[in-house]
Each structure stands twice: as C-alpha cells, then as structure tokens.
Design brief:
seven-stranded parallel sheet; Rossmann fold; alpha/beta; globular
Amino acid sequence: MTITPDTLTLLGAGYTARALARRLRETDWRINGSVREKRKAEMIVANGIAPFVWNNDFIKPEHLGETTAILVSTPPADAGCPALNALRHAIITEKAPQPSDIRWLGYLSSNGVYGDHNGAWVHEKSAMLATSERSKRRIKAERLWRDFADEHELPLTIYRLPGIYGPGRSAIDTVRSGNAKRIYKPGQVFNRMHVDDIARVLATSLHELITPELVNLSDDEPSPPQDVIEYACSLLGVEPPPLVPIEQAQLSPMAASFYTDNKRISNALMKKTFGLDLEYPSYREGLRAIYEDE
C-alpha cells in the first residue's frame, strides 16, 4: 500500500527532519515545519519546508488542518511531551486534523531508553534499563504517545534512533575544530547512523505506509568511539589525538553519562521491515562520503 503525497507536518524541523524534507523535495509532498524563532525560518525554507513558529504551546489550526502525516522530533520535557500536548489540543479541541485524516505518524525517540546492556546486542523487545533522567523522559514520552495513538486509532511508529551524524555534524568536523579526543574504555561501543540513511527509512515508511509500532534504527557496526576519530584523522591526513583512558579524560557530567551505557543495537527488524540496504553500513563509508563530497 502506498500513500498519495499530501501534507507532512514536522513538529521540530531539526537536522533529521530537514534531511527527510530534502529527500521528499522532488515529490508532490507539501511540507510544513515548526521553528522556535522567525529568524530560523530561512534555514528550513531552503530545505523545501514552509515554516511556522511554535514555542511548545498550542498550534494554530491552520498549521495542522490539512495534515495527513506528522513527524515528531522534539524532545520531551520534565512535564511531558509538548508536541503531544499540542496535537491532543488540535485534535480534541480544534477538530483539526481529524484522527481519520492522519495516515502516518512518526515519533523519533532514542535507543538510550535501553540503558546499559554490558555490550550485548539489543532488539526491540529488550528490557529498558535507562538510568539517566533524559532517557527516563523518553520512556515516559513513548508511553504517552502510544496511549494517545491507541485512543485515537493513529498509525504511530516509534523510531528509536542512535547517534546521528552527517555533513556538518560528524567526527570530521570534531577533528577540524581541534576538540577531538580519543577516549578509551575497555569494550565500549556506540551506535550511530548516517542522517541520509535515517531519512531513507522514514521516506520509505511514509511512501509505502509501512508503520510498525516500534523499530530500532542503526547502522551495521557498533564501534568504539576512538576508532571513529582515528578514521576521521586518516581521511584528513592528520595525526590522531593520543588515546586517553576514560579515568583520565576529565569529561563533563553530560559527556561521561554516555559512557555508562554500553550496548549493540540490532537493525535486523529495520532491514526486514523496510527492505533497505544501507548506503552507509558503517562509519567508514559515511565519513568517507562526507569527506569526498566537500
């Protein structure tokens, strides 16, 4: 089954949402996207997105009235998910859109909800062992979205994303900035995915109306972070920074928190469901493409 291109609304027009918009630019989709400030509107217009200002309050009916597909990429807050509150108000109070009008609803969550699995492989039915407050907020937001979707019979898919990289936001940029570190923690790996591969999955889901309730997104190769920095240095022809044991790294509390979770995200369901081969199956293909396209 395919969906006739109509109107896609992006609640949050950030890095990943803009990549999806660029992929849809040559199609018949009309795309609206929220920004917090008018000065940011020009940036998303360049990606084929009609901007509207939304500051986590209610959304005016004219920005949602013709919507048939919605992608939510804004993070949850302590008190809940602002995007969910806004959509609930639109559907229940403003009657625009009608639940029956929404044929696709995607929520971008995080694989941080799984917490630490001691480097083991993790799939969609694995336990959620998150200990950080930001990941606990994600778990709560997922539950609220699922309850809302079930109540209104909305075709919700929760996409649990890994670390996202791509042009302008990769280890190559980190090395060039002079801020790269090669931090070593035995057995530690991180999961990541090129933003264009994420956009391909989302576009396929949208076009073909493939809407599993939950799917993990990741590339094929969870990898030690120091290896990624070393490869970026090799592309740039510079010496990699010294390897520093994590105990000596003097990380900020936020940076250190990422090293408390260690897991390998399985993308088996993603590949089976959407029938896609990744363009960038590991950081090596992704970083090389970024470097060669500059």
